[in-house]
Amino acid sequence: MSQYRLSNIEVGKNYLAKELDSFVSTTDVVVLSNNESQLFTDPERQYKVTGAFDGFFEHSSNDGEKYFREKKAYIVEKV
Fold first, then answer.
1. Are 49 and 12 within 8 A, CB to CB?
2. Domain of life, per the record (predicted)?
3. CB–CB of 32/73 below 8 Å?
4. How does DSSP assign 33-65, residue by residue?
5. Contact, 45 vs 54, CB < 8 A?
6. How many domains does the chain divide into?
7. pLDDT, tens digit (0-9, with 9 covering 90-100), for 15-65
8. Residue 41: what are its φ and ψ, rounded to 5°?
9. Is the dihedral of CA 23, 27, 32, 36 positive or negative?
10. What are the distances in angstroms from CA 23 to CA 3, 20, 68?
11. Are 13 and 51 in contact (CB under 8 A)?
């Protein structure tokens, strides 16, 4: 799968699931998909990157606090 290795993805562009799989495997990111848990089940399915954020808030179940995580997050939708 090394031929699909991406170092960056861009909002507005389409990518195959196998390309996103490689990107997620080699990059510290979060990917949110409207295809729920089936994002990587069909390697040839196309997804469009519809949004990107530099971080997000996460609730800690340990202390009940909310923390901002500086971690790139992408929103993808199946095409």
1. yes
2. Bacteria
3. yes
4. ETTGGGTTTSTT-EEEEEEEES-EEEE-TTTS-
5. no
6. 1
7. 999 999 999 999 999 999 998 889 999 999 999 999 999 999 999 999 999
8. -75, -30
9. positive
10. 11, 5, 23
11. no
Q: What is the DSSP secondary structure assignment for residue 10, as one 8-state letter?
A: -
Cα angle for residues 5, 17, 37 (degrees, 5° grid): 125
Q: How many CB atoms lie within 10 A of CB 53?
A: 12
Rounded to the nearest 5 degrees, what angle is found at the Cα of 28, between the Cα atoms of 13 and 66?
Answer: 105
By DSSP bridging, strand 46-53 and strand 73-78 are antiparallel
pLDDT band at 1 (very low <50, low <70, confident <90, very high): very low
Exposed/middle/buried for residue 68 (C-beta within 10 Å: 0-12, 13-18, 19+)? exposed
